[in-house]
Write a structure and sequence with these properties.
The protein has 15 helices and 16 strands. With about 500 residues, the protein is an alpha+beta fold.
């Protein structure tokens, strides 16, 4: 008889005698950026004994940028990613400001960078929600896989799909205007930017911004409605209780470009508050595990076992005291009312929080486009070179840290990058274990069950390798083996999404 009693997910990271257990591999994960896989180990009673999210690619940027002149860094490191290059460009830009001895930019330089950053977050959030996640939310986690994709979305909800495309296009146009091109452009230089906007560029973006705000409100309402329609299911799905970390403005407002580090415990108590992000290394430590190329950060004050935290839209909306744009603030108040006595911990609430931020970015873009400083000509400050520079920014997926040291010739001698998905590494593993423990015990493998594992990971909008990869076109093979290595079940999904056994 199979024992289907509840599983303690805290024990699912490392199994005793794994060589005696059966293995299910979900490889690769789909509708995420980058390559990763999930492995599940089962005993002879089909009980989950281990569940892990593996990052199977190696990112060597910290090593091969050594020896390069520091002023090249914003252009070099944005090649980490084709989805969020602006985030790496600006985090490196903030770090090289310090290396160049500049602590404060001119108003024009800061506002041009902010405009670029808001455009980046808007386009990235639109891509993730409309193209990658909404098929699960609109059609159901275990719906027909031939429908549960972006093509099915276009067929069933053509107006919604079009809005997603145009919202992303607008964000990319903001990037193009500020950086010269939509992907891997240039903007940040040591101590400032290389161009401001002219009146024609400003007027061009102003033509469509009100439409973007309207569509942003519609996307927010959709995400809110989809969460609340299945509130208890969505509230508990892949739910874990963790501290959360983000930048915050000095007055507690949501801050995406520059602020102090704030971390709250799972019950809302302050663990860090307005810490200078240049002191991040005094508060955040990193573990290495043999089965993943991605590190496991934790809060030093809490220790490696209990100090894991989450970052990204869910963390930012939880940790801020208010949002300084009216429509997004109204949405934040309703969102936080879900858990009035603590943090909103539902993993699927990431989607709702993400759309609050999309709307906020559209509102901030409208404000900046009305600011005459965008057209200014004071673009750059200068100072005396320093040996270390640390840049921290809130990327679409969460807090992003770039930390560089240089020699007297200005060449990089050391680099440490903690990308947003790295912060979420342990949390994603815990969410995977939660879903696996709920679904896989003693049951036949189905594509819908497999997808629910991916839904849990997808909610974090991970960039698994911070590199550019094709999305959703990779084959998937899942095998269930006996302890003696005999295959008892095999499910294959080919590059066209067709299933066979």
């Amino acid at each position: 008889m199979t024992d289907n009693s509840p599983i303690d997910i805290r024990r699912l990271e490392t199994a005793e005698h794994p060589e005696t257990l059966r293995r299910i591999a979900i490889e690769p994960l789909t509708r995420v950026e980058g390559h990763g896989k999930v492995t599940l180990l089962l005993d002879d009673d089909n009980r989950i004994r281990q569940a892990r999210l593996h990052i199977v690619e190696f990112r060597g940027f910290e090593k091969f940028i050594q020896g390069r002149p520091y002023w090249e860094l914003p252009v070099l490191v944005q090649r980490l990613c084709g989805i969020c290059p602006v985030s790496h460009h600006l985090a490196a830009g903030k770090a090289i400001d310090q290396l160049a001895g500049v602590d404060r930019l001119t108003p024009t330089a800061e506002k041009v960078r902010r405009l670029m950053h808001y455009g980046q977050i808007l386009q990235s959030h639109a891509l993730h929600f409309f193209h990658l996640s909404s098929p699960d939310l609109l059609f159901g986690f275990d719906s027909d896989l031939y429908q549960r994709n972006v093509v099915g979305l276009i067929s069933r909800y053509p107006d919604l799909a079009k809005q997603g495309v145009l919202l992303r296009k607008f964000g990319q146009e903001v990037i193009r205007v500020t950086a010269g091109k939509r992907i891997h452009g240039t903007c940040a230089i040591p101590g400032g930017v290389n161009k401001s906007l002219d009146s024609d560029e400003r007027d061009y973006l102003q033509q469509d911004i009100r439409q973007m705000i309207d569509w942003g409100q519609g996307a927010l309402e959709l995400a809110r409605r989809l969460f609340l329609e299945a509130r208890e299911q969505h509230r508990q799905f892949a739910r874990i209780n963790t501290p959360m970390l983000s930048l915050c403005r000095d007055d507690g407002a949501l801050e995406l470009y520059h602020g102090g580090l704030r971390a709250l415990s799972s019950d809302g108590q302050a663990l860090l508050d307005h810490i200078d992000y240049r002191e991040y290394h005094r508060h955040i430590r990193e573990q290495v595990k043999s089965w993943s190329y991605m590190k496991f950060p934790y809060l030093q004050s809490q220790g490696p076992e209990t100090g894991a935290y989450r970052v990204g839209p869910l963390a930012r909306i939880n940790t801020c005291d208010f949002i300084d744009t009216p429509l997004a603030e109204q949405a934040r108040v309703e969102f936080r009312a879900l858990e009035p006595d603590g943090l909103v911990q539902s993993t699927l609430a990431y989607h709702w929080a993400r759309m609050i931020e999309l709307l906020h970015c559209a509102e901030k873009i409208e404000q900046l486009l009305a600011d005459p400083d965008l057209l200014g000509q004071e673009l750059k400050q200068s100072g005396d070179m320093r040996p270390r520079g640390i840049g921290v920014i809130e990327a679409p997926r969460g807090t992003l840290i770039h930390d560089y040291e240089i020699n007297p010739d200005g060449l990089v001698t050391r680099a440490n990058l903690i990308v947003s998905t790295t912060h979420n590494n342990r949390a994603m593993n815990e969410s995977v274990r939660t879903v696996a423990a709920d679904l896989f015990n003693g049951r036949e493998i189905t594509e819908g069950m497999l997808n629910q594992i991916e839904v849990a990971v997808r909610a974090y909008d991970p960039c698994l390798s911070c590199a550019t990869h094709a999305l959703g076109k990779m084959p998937l093979v899942i095998e269930l083996q006996t302890a003696q290595g005999h295959i008892v079940d095999r499910l294959i999904k080919n590059t066209q999404g067709e299933l066979s056994r």
